Amino acid sequence: MTTWLRDDTSTPYDLFRFLRNPEDTRHQTARVTADGAAWLATASAHPGTALARWEERPAHPAVLPCGTAFDVVNVDPIFGRRMLDKLWAEGPGSGPVAVHRGRMLLFAAPGTAQRLPSLLDWEEWGEAVPRPLCHGVGDAVTVPPLVPAGDDTPAPRWLVAPDTRSPWLPGPEVLLWACVRAVRAASAADVRVSIFPSADPDANVYDVSRRR
């Protein structure tokens, strides 16, 4: 069941005129377009009703069910940022991405929530991956409001907002790849190689690894 959360900032106006306004260039990456809103509404059992409610309450977050239009992979925000860096720099990009309550929500293809944990169990680097929370059939997630909030507000917000009726969504294999690349990159950054024996614990040691 779709639930719209209460918000004291409710102001009735034409939501879809606002979403289509080409003159307002604020937060373009974090802004849901009218087509993106239509796609999000397909997660509801009654998309038309969902859109009507959203038009009435554009500044309200919503709770939408997973498993039909999308699954959601819920990760630690620092690790999630590393995943996004890899997806965009070396991979195919990402689908919509949001942040809520100190976590990063990566919207994924339906079925990802069921398969990704198993793939991580079989992966050599899987134990090093901060275990994600995977939301699929039977679960629901809080979706940020359509109208962007300020960056300093605690409300959920979009990092990469949906902007089409058929957004590309990464599947479990793509997210596994991103998890492994993020872990390996972090591991490589922590490696320190020395050709010298361990120093006397009482000796003064100076780090010269960054000397030019």
| Relative helix content | 25-40%
| Span between termini | 61 Å
Quick one: biggest sheet? 5 strands, antiparallel
- Please state the average pLDDT score: 80
Beta strand %: 15-25%
Could you tell me the radius of gyration in angstroms?
A: 21 Å
* Strand count: 8
Report the total helices: 6
Structural class: alpha+beta
Specify the overall morphology: globular
Q: Secondary-structure element sequence?
A: EHHHEEHEEHEEEH
Residue ranges: pLDDT <50 for 5 or more in a row?
Answer: 1-27, 191-212
Strand order of the largest sheet: 6-3-5-4-8
Structure, described:
By secondary structure, the chain is α+β, with helices and mostly antiparallel strands. It is built from six helices and eight strands, in the order βαααββαββαβββα. A hairpin with a 2-residue loop joins β4 and β5 (103-108). α2 packs across α3 (47-56) and α5 (112-122) packs across α6. The longest helix is centred in the last third of the chain and has 19 residues, at 172-190.
Note the topology.
Layout: E1 3-4, H1 15-19, H2 34-41, H3 47-56, E2 62-65, E3 71-75, H4 77-89, E4 97-100, E5 103-108, H5 112-122, E6 133-135, E7 140-143, E8 157-160, H6 172-190
Helix pairs in contact: 2-3, 4-6, 5-6
In short:
The protein has 212 residues and is an alpha+beta fold. It is built from six helices and eight strands, in the order βαααββαββαβββα. A hairpin with a 2-residue loop joins strand 4 (97-100) and strand 5 (103-108).
